[in-house]
Amino acid sequence: MSAARPPGARPEASPGAQPEALPGTSADAPPPAAAPPRSGASAARVPGAGWRPFLPAVALLAVPLLLALFGPLFAGPPGPRGVAFQPPGDGHWLGTDFTGRDVWREVLLGGRTVVLVAACAVGVAYAAALPVGLAAALTGRRRVEDALLRPLDVLMAIPSLLVLLLVSARLTPGPAALVFLVALVNVPDVARVVRGAAAEIAARPVVEAMRLQGESRWRIAVGYVARSMLRTVAADAGTRLTGALYLVATASFLGVGVAPDASDWAVMVDRNRTGMLIQPWGVVVPALLVTALTVGVNLFFDAALHRRAGRAAAGTRATGSAARRGRPDRKGRGEAGTP
Q1: Gene3D superfamilies, per this entry (predicted)?
Q2: Is there a contact between 103 and 291 (Cβ–Cβ < 8 Å)?
């Protein structure tokens, strides 16, 4: 005979019995389903993600870049010269230029100089400015920094076109001279950008820790500081390339650093403008190609920077939401601990 239970006491559970379900719930109810994982497409929908922002830039860059890279391969040998400013026809698809040369052949030959000179000028500018900017940021001596940057400040105060005109008077016209001129104009700005980025990185505690460990200045500058500012340098290089294309086209248009009869898009615009009313294709086609190239490069690097900023913002939001989810809920913990 079992002992009497006190009033209000719950009956003892027999071995193997299922636990009593809470009021309003079912013992046989399945556990709540976990939220389905986000698909890769939805997870990638962050501002600036995907390739759609690059489409306008690619559309503008396709034709001038293809002509600049592969045009000389299809130009062929020069044919007999015709009448100056002859309209399209008689074997000349786009007519003839101011000397009777075929405009289409000059278009095929004129892009490589613009692209290669601008790219080489940016590379030379960075090769000269990177050591100067790193040294000015990492020496820690005001006199050394002033000695490195003050001459560049004087050069920066002079307008770019005036520098091109003054220096070109002492140089032999040609692509090498144009590379030197455009690089010289860009060195002060690049050195300032490198110095600012390197100074911000050099102020981090890890750099001080490397110094206390006995690391050499060369290892700190090249092994850590230079590697840490690669993204900043890459972003600035895109903007710098756009400016270099503009300077190369402007210098060629003014006849600075190039021969008067060179196969160059900007030279074609300058030399053929006198007969534009008779034969406009010698001016319109190269001008459109230079414009598409400059605007396309600008849009491409602008989209790349926007994509990088969107990814950084998305990563910051994801980190913040993860931190909020991992933080304990004080109110819920208090309610759970209440008997």
Answers
A1: MetI-like (1.10.3720.10)
A2: no
Tell whether 152 is covered by a domain. Answer: yes
**How far apart, in whole angstroms, are the C-alpha atoms of residue 126 and residue 237?**
9
pTM for the complete prediction? 0.70
Report the C-alpha gap between 38 and 55 in whole angstroms: 27
Tokens coding 16 = 């193997």
Q: Report if residue 65 sits inside a domain.
A: yes
For residue 202, what are the domain limits? 53-72+83-308
Q: Whose CA is closest to 283, among 291, 292, 273, 274?
A: 273
CATH number, domain of 97, equals 1.10.3720.10
Q: What is the mean pLDDT of each run of 10 residues along the chain (339 residues)?
A: 51 50 48 47 49 90 94 88 87 89 93 91 94 86 86 88 81 83 92 90 86 83 84 84 87 77 86 90 93 90 78 62 57 45
Total domains in the fold of the chain: 1
296, part of any domain:
yes
Question: Would residue 43 count as lying in a domain?
Answer: no
Signed CA dihedral, 324, 328, 334, 336: sign only: positive
- Backbone phi and psi for residue 34, each to the nearest 5 degrees, phi listed first: -70, 150
Q: Considering all CA atoms of the chain, what is the largest pairwise distance in Å, rounded to the nearest integer?
A: 128
pLDDT, residue 159, reads 86
What is the rounded distance in angstroms from the CA atom of residue 164 to the CA atom of residue 154? 15
Report DSSP letters for 44-90, one per residue: T-STT-SSGGGHHHHHHHHHHHHHHHHHHHH--S------TTPPSBT
